[in-house]
Amino acid sequence: MKYYNLKDKEEVVDFKTATIKGQGKEKGLFFPENIPRFDPEFIKNLQQYSNEEIAFQCMIDFVGDDTPSDVLKQIVSETINFEIPLKKINENIYSLELFHGPTLAFKDVGARFMSRCLSYFLKDKNKKVTVLVATSGDTGGAVANGFYKTENVNVVILYPKNRVSEVQEKQLTALGENISALEVDGSFDDCQNLVKQAFADDDINSTFFLTSANSINIARWLPQQIYYLLALKQWQKLEKENPVICAPSGNFGNLCAGILTDFRGLPVEHFIAACNENDVVPQYLRTEKLELKETIATLSNAMDVGNPSNFVRILELFGNQFNELKNKISGYSINDKETLQTITKVYEKYNYLLEPHSAVAYAAMEQYLKENPGKKGFILGTAHPIKFPDAVKKATQITINLPVSLEKLMKKEKKSIEIQPDFAELKRFLLNKISKL
Ligand SMILES: *Cc1c(COP(=O)(O)O)cnc(C)c1O
Question: Tell me, what DSSP letter sits at residue 245?
Fold first, then answer.
């Protein structure tokens, strides 16, 4: 498979190059040259395949030229080596629990896949890569965990001060080794802007080989398709009609991966883009105008994004046909008050504990089902409630116990360096503190 740059279609690269570079010229995102269809028999009979086989089939067309089958098999099986259950909340709404991985967030899937690909591509090369990544909370932890002690890779994570939860902060800052955490006195968009400036800076680029680990990177974005297939495998046992799928969305990598599986032939009734008050996409779906906005800080902080980077990929999938896009995706914006009310209600009524992101998805799903009676579907449960204990406690009075897997981490010391949202400070840090090419 080849990938072209959405900003400059002349730039065409293979999977390996796209993974190592992260993005193309003019900061353009890479996009697959064609959309490989699933074999309809495979889709009909998902239940007959193991999760590893499904994951392998899902990815082979995208990476097959650059990665031998046995290597890809190994990578996908490590990517999904935790359970991804589809749990029933009530008659019409299920939750695909994507939070049983090592950092208790769905981003583990993409981060694990990408780190293993990068590590494979850098093997035997005398090349050091610096992964520079901005996080609103969960990306950083998943990337830090995925890349921890990976040879020839340094990871620098920028996160907004006071806007991530305690567990999230520990996951970013306590590992050390090849992982550095920069605490930016600003918003997630400030972090993302700093990262973008670094990618455009000549001094930095002549000193380091930089790459991104946000869902901009195809090796993080594409493997997210896998769990839509794993969801359908379970769904087909439970329900007859095709599911409505609702993804709590920020940068839209997750939803875009789901839509890609639909284009490949996965039977999905409809998609819902569930946003918090950062509602650029729901507003676009109403008005056909994409108006980027300053981010608003909310309880679902991983979705506090005012300029969703993967949205251009969604537009590309639909060939920029607004009406087709609107027929397949609905958008809703849910505020913090509704988010908390949803956590309370779902806990009291169904004894199911949501955290703020999945609560946004639940509330959006509920609105859609009200407008479209008779349909059923699932939300993507993107994080474990323990990652957002304050909101959960406020809504339900429940204090969640720390899972055993986190106890050790929480006792470790936070190690971060505070910087202002000023590119000169980031540049100084990189040039002085990170080992060179
Ligand atoms: C990152 C994240 C999201 C948003 O995912 P996108 O792919 O950026 O749209 C939603 N929920 C949680 C918990 C996240 O960490």
Answer: E
The string of DSSP letters for 4-36 reads: EETTEEEEEEEHHHHHHH-S-GGGPPEEESS-P
For 226, phi then psi, to 5°, come to -55, -45
- pLDDT at position 403: 84
Distance (angstroms) between ligand 1 centre and the Cα of 125 equals 33
Is pLDDT at 412 greater than 90 in this prediction?
yes
Q: How many CA atoms lie within 13 A of 103 on its CB side?
A: 32
Residue 154's φ and ψ, nearest 5 degrees, are -105, 145
Q: Which of 278, 357, 360, 392 to mutate to test the pocket of ligand 1 (most atoms within 8 A of CB)?
A: 357
Does ligand 1 lie within 6 Å of residue 253's CB atom?
Answer: yes
Q: Measured from the CB, is residue 249 less than 6 Å from ligand 1?
A: yes
User: Can you tell me the mean pLDDT for 93-104?
Assistant: 95
**Residue 171: CA count within 13 A, CB half-sphere:** 29
Q: pLDDT (tens digit, 9 = 90+) per residue, 117-136?
A: 998 998 877 788 999 999 98
Q: Is 248 a pocket residue for ligand 1 (Cβ < 6 Å)? A: yes
To the question of domain 72-106+221-396 being in CATH 3.40.50.1100, the answer is yes
Other Cβ atoms within 10 Å of 37 Cβ, number: 11
Sequence letter at residue 151: E
> Active-site residues: which are they?
107
Residue 261 has pLDDT above 90, yes or no: yes
CB atoms within 10 A of CB 109: 27
- Tell me if 278 sits within 8 A of 364, measured CB to CB: no
DSSP conformational letter for 105: B
Q: Which residues contact 407 (CB under 8 A, 6 or more apart)?
A: none
What is the percent of the chain where pLDDT is above 70?
100
Structure tokens at 134: 């901005």
Q: CA-CA distance, 302 to 282, in Å (whole number)? A: 17
